[in-house]
Every structure is written in structure tokens, then in C-alpha cells.
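Quick one: structure for this chain?
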Amino acid sequence: MGRFDRRESPLSVTYEPTSVKDLLVEMKDTAELLIDLSYSAVLHGSPTIAEEVVELEHRMDVLQMRARMSLMLAARSPDEAETLAPVLGVVGAADKISDAAGDIAKIITDEIGLPDAMRGALTGGVETLVRGTVASDSGYAGRTLKDIDLESKTGVRVIAIRRDDDWILNPGPKTRIEVGDVTLLRGPETGVVEAYPELAGEPFEPAEPVEPAIDDLERAVDSIVLMKNLSELAVDLAYGSILFNNEELAEEVSNLEIEVDALQSRFEAWTLRAAREADDPVSLRGLIHLGVATEEISDAAVKITEGVRRNLGVHPVVEMAVQESDEIITRTVVREGSDLAGTSVTNGIPTTDVSTSVIAIRRPDEGWLIGHDIDTVLRAGDAVISKGTRTSAEEFEALAS
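Got it. Here's what it folds into:
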């Protein structure tokens, strides 16, 4: 699992006795990678990355078909069908995210066009996503990710590697980086600036943001960036609601989806108004495509929570899949006198050396604090829902105890 040949035909699908859990793990990891890759393709205007999205989308079609086959064979009675129905929802949601990512990639592959201001706005996220090829004289070449230890030193993670025609979707500590590997790095911009030259043999130069010349276009761009952030947050919270069988988190996912729908309506109005003043209104077509696809991601998040919202329970296979995926979601209670108590959180990032994102905080006297715009100081008693690697999750838990 986690590696496949791009030359595999997406049209030929036969049943294989594969664990449903393993299929769900790969589908979740692939869906999240597809979101990153599709927006990265738009950000860098890269047909190469966009084509990789299309290939992975085909792979996702195969995975979801095999998962459906396995689930159909597993349901032998009405009771089993009832417990497995929400699992089908999770499978369908991952496939829907894949389709949305493919639509985003088409902005590049079909040369639909996108305003430069949109690319500038996408660089303003909490984390930077960059594509780099391992240079022949790189100090990382021939070493494992554990040996390099990028995450602890810089906060940057290698989230995927393309080697010739193969993708390594979930590189682990034992994965060895080779000269010529095309890597995807994700982390804070300061960390990327530090790590990228050692990997690629050249400095990383962030693109200068382009300010929109039209007010309505600026509003549209701001809206689509917020929609993207809220949709990604909705997916994270949806998996969190499954992991903890938490109806309140599932309800927050529904609220986020409603907010994204409202944003899309305003976004479309501002885009149409901007077209009146734009020198080339056709260049705004990509914005519309981006808005529709982003909204579909938030719809998929609601589908993930279906079993929790309808009180059907959470099938153990889904819980295990969420726990074993690339990035895991954890619930941590901040203890009195711990190193985490009194730590500031800004834009979802706590001021610690741990590479973990805070996606929600359950505060006893205030309820839920949700979103990338969390700006608060952690208190004893806070229940923190966070996302990161296993290593960072263990370190985060140690700080809280």
C-alpha cells in the first residue's frame, strides 16, 4: 500500500481480496494528497503536477470500486448492511474529493486560465507546499527520512515522492531519498527556505503576492481562499468526528458546509462584477471552476460524517483506517501545570517546536473554538483536536501532560 505504478490502467478493475481498512487508509491519504497537489498545480501553474493529479484520480477510481466490492461481499444480513452503510459514505466522500481535485487540475491541463492574484493569495496560507527535485550533490541523497529528520529540525515534511513513473504516497522513516526524486515538501515558509536549498541545490524564492487591481476581484479571491481553508478544515473535523464518534464535531462540519455555500454565492457575484472591469474576462473562468470544486470538497466532508449524524455508529474498520493513515487526528486534554498550558495558538499553529496543527478546541466554559483563525492561549482543561504525524502527536501529548 502507498505505492503504485502510474501505467496501471484505470479502466480494468477486478476484485482482489484486499483489506477494507487498507483500502480506506490509502483512499484517505490519496484524497488529502490530491487536495495538496491540485492547489499546488494551480499555485505554480504546473502542467506536470496537474497531470499527476489526473493519474492519481484514476487510481482513486480503482480504489473506491474495489472498496465497494469488498463491502458488498461483507454485508450478509440487514444488520451488517446497516453498520456498513456509513462506510460506503466514507468511500464515496474520498472519491468525491478526488473528483474535485481533478476539476481543479483541469484549470491547468485545459488551460482555462486563472488571475495572477489568485496564485498570490494561495501563497499566503499557514503552510507552504513546494515541489523540488533532489540534486546530484544534495546532502539528503541516499539517506532515509529518519536520518535526515527534516520534521524535527525545520517543521517541514516530505508528503510524497515521485520516482520515475511511481508515486510513493506515504513516505515513512525508512524511505530513502534518491538523486532525481521529485519531492513534495510541506511546512512553514521559514522551514522550507532552510530545507529546500539542501535538497534541490538552489535557493527557495517565494513568489511575491500580486495585488488585484479590481476591488471586486480582490473580494472574490479572498472568498475563494477562505472557502479552501474552511473546506479543508471540514474534512479534518469530519474524520475527527468519526474517530471520536462525536456528534458535536459532525454538527460543526455541517455548519462549515453551510458557510462555504454562502461564501460561494457571494464569490460568484463578485467574480461576475469583476468581469465587467477586467481587461480579459475569460481569464476569470478558472476562478469559477475553483469555486465549484472547493465547495464540493466541503460537501464531501458532510458525507463522511453521515454515520455519526444519523446515529448509526462508527464501524471499527473506519476508526482503524483514520488512526493508521498518513496524518492522524488526536484529542489531547491540556493538564494543569503542563508545558502546553499558557501556549499561544495563532492561525492553528501552537508556539512550540512540535509540527502539529490545532483544528479545534473544546473549552469547558466556551464550547468549540473552530478554524484556521484560532487565536488564543491554551488553558488547563482545554480538549484540543489536532492533526499531524505520529511523532508530532506523541510530542504534543507529552507537552500536555
